[in-house]
Amino acid sequence: MASNGEATTESETAAPAPVPEPTPPPCQGRLITVLSIDGGGIRGLVPATILACLEAKLQELDGPEARIADYFDVIAGTSTGALITSMLAAPDDNRQPLFAADDLTKFYLENGPKIFPQQRVGFLTPVANLIGTVRGPKYDGSFLHDKIKSLTHDVTIADTVTNIVVPAFDVKYLQPIIFSTYEAKNEPLKNAHLSDICISTSAAPTYFLAHFFKTTSPSGESREFHLIDRGVAANNPILSIYHLTMVAMSMISKEVLRENQDFKLGKPADYRHYLVISIGTGTATMAEKYTAPACAKWGVLRWLYDSGFTPLIDIFSHASADMDDSLVGHTSSVDIATEENMEALIGIGKDLLKKPVARVNIDTGVHEPVDGEGTNEEALARFAKKLSEERRLRRNSLSSS
């Protein structure tokens, strides 16, 4: 504002830039687009690197303002994947995504060491870690909680710029809880703050405290939640690659059954209508981890802590390995947030983009290259083109109707 009689400058009187219109719903196109991002603590740097590449491909096609959330009808995430999901889908003051994908790695690099403060290494460190694991969570989570709250403020899940799905687990009622934008718009008691949802799904046992909060409906009803990371119960280790994606797709199917007009384009079970990408955080090389002869000798304490790792949690929260299962040493940990390890994880993501597309041999569990598919980066470029074409189709369909 001009003051003291000064002339108002052109920049002060210029109208604000127009807010881009939201992407039309699937009923205006041919596909339902789904992105799922699995958990893995500091290893979130791997999907962050992949997503930055995908968004860059979209920007090559549709301009520098293109954002991941503009292209997906549903983004599902758990643990660190839910944090990424929230940053991609939380609105800024103009109802645009709060973060560009390129900002995700910067977030981890800046905040990772504060979320997972590293202990001094000494000859008593293994003993101290074991005692700490038995007595309570490894981290108090205060920085993580404050950071999430400062990012999302009072935004609730119903306010996100695209639909998101985040699973957690209620320890009081011993049942999974799934938060979704869809349900939040119809069920006020499920319309929790994004901060509470992210804190809950990040509360991996032995690492962070379980999270308690309440929601209140406009009529005054309230509901309690006593939540931890969904990995303890909602993640079937055998189907870990697909579980989060299937949670998202089941929520879409429920909306179809509710006759949500946004999804009136085909039968919910017809998977030809889905365009899906599932991004994990990688897993440790199986040969580098645990063996049956070793596990057979373990008691309760060794299952909770073994040479810097937590075997029981590793097994229950086994992350997706869609594109990479070769993490070794510190890179396979969820909480080693040293500069060296974080840069190594970014490097793994970049190297992964250069690797040939591979699929899991269901008989051996081994990833095998697929002839004629090129590299993962080339596959992302083809995927970005499909997303761009679908978005353009919806816009044209809406404008002509």
Automatic annotation (TrEMBL):
<comment type="function">
    <text>Possesses non-specific lipolytic acyl hydrolase (LAH) activity. Hydrolyzes phospholipids as well as galactolipids. May play a role in disease resistance.</text>
</comment>
<dbReference type="InterPro" id="IPR016035">
    <property type="entry name" value="Acyl_Trfase/lysoPLipase"/>
</dbReference>
<feature type="active site" description="Nucleophile">
    <location>
        <position position="79"/>
    </location>
</feature>
<dbReference type="GO" id="GO:0006952">
    <property type="term" value="P:defense response"/>
</dbReference>
<dbReference type="Pfam" id="PF01734">
    <property type="entry name" value="Patatin"/>
</dbReference>
<feature type="compositionally biased region" description="Low complexity">
    <location>
        <begin position="1"/>
        <end position="16"/>
    </location>
</feature>
<comment type="function">
    <text>Lipolytic acyl hydrolase (LAH).</text>
</comment>
<keyword id="KW-0611">Plant defense</keyword>
<feature type="short sequence motif" description="GXSXG">
    <location>
        <begin position="77"/>
        <end position="81"/>
    </location>
</feature>
<dbReference type="GO" id="GO:0016042">
    <property type="term" value="P:lipid catabolic process"/>
</dbReference>
<dbReference type="GO" id="GO:0047372">
    <property type="term" value="F:monoacylglycerol lipase activity"/>
</dbReference>
<feature type="active site" description="Proton acceptor">
    <location>
        <position position="229"/>
    </location>
</feature>
<feature type="region of interest" description="Disordered">
    <location>
        <begin position="1"/>
        <end position="27"/>
    </location>
</feature>
<feature type="compositionally biased region" description="Pro residues">
    <location>
        <begin position="17"/>
        <end position="27"/>
    </location>
</feature>
<protein>
    <recommendedName>
        <fullName>Patatin</fullName>
        <ecNumber>3.1.1.-</ecNumber>
    </recommendedName>
</protein>
<feature type="short sequence motif" description="GXGXXG">
    <location>
        <begin position="39"/>
        <end position="44"/>
    </location>
</feature>
<dbReference type="InterPro" id="IPR002641">
    <property type="entry name" value="PNPLA_dom"/>
</dbReference>
<feature type="domain" description="PNPLA">
    <location>
        <begin position="35"/>
        <end position="242"/>
    </location>
</feature>
<keyword id="KW-0443">Lipid metabolism</keyword>
<dbReference type="GO" id="GO:0004620">
    <property type="term" value="F:phospholipase activity"/>
</dbReference>
<keyword id="KW-0442">Lipid degradation</keyword>
<comment type="similarity">
    <text>Belongs to the patatin family.</text>
</comment>
<keyword id="KW-0378">Hydrolase</keyword>
